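Weekly sync, protein design subgroup
Attendees: M.S., D.O., the rotation student, P.L. (late)

Item 1: inverse folding check
M.S. brought a backbone from last month's batch and wanted to see whether the design step gives back something sensible before we order anything. D.O. pointed out we never logged the input encoding, so this time it goes straight into the notes. Structure tokens as presented (116 positions):
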């Protein structure tokens, strides 16, 4: 009888920093598919009329996605999300890195979540 493995769930949070890294170790015995969610939340000051934010995603050291936008919601938080799906062959590890850049706004939260 084969043992059923539970779906994997990985998360890494930056605690206000502008870089977060999520390392998923290799599985020696099976292929896996992960839904990757990357979220940036910034604080925009009330006078943040020209504020902007940018979110970048790197997978195993290669840029996969990048998006700069003007921040809205002066005096509140604003955010940017990205979702992708990654297939991992058996015996392959994965490194996902999120980078945030801002002007006139501050990183409140940056995180990566991977669900199998």
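Designed sequence read out in the meeting:
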């Amino acid at each position: 009888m084969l043992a059923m493995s539970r779906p994997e769930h990985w998360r890494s949070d930056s605690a206000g920093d502008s870089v977060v890294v999520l390392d998923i170790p290799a599985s020696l015995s099976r292929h896996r598919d992960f839904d990757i969610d990357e979220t940036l939340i910034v604080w925009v000051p009330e006078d943040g009329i020209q504020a902007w934010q940018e979110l970048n995603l790197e997978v195993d050291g290669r840029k996969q996605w990048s998006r700069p936008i003007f921040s809205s919601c002066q005096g509140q938080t604003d955010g940017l999300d990205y979702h992708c799906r990654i297939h991992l062959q058996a015996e392959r590890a994965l490194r996902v890195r999120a980078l945030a850049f801002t002007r006139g706004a501050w990183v409140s939260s940056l995180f990566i979540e991977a669900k199998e």
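Discussion: The two ends are 23 Å apart (CA to CA). The first strand starts at residue 9 and ends at 13.
Action: P.L. to compare against the previous round before Friday.
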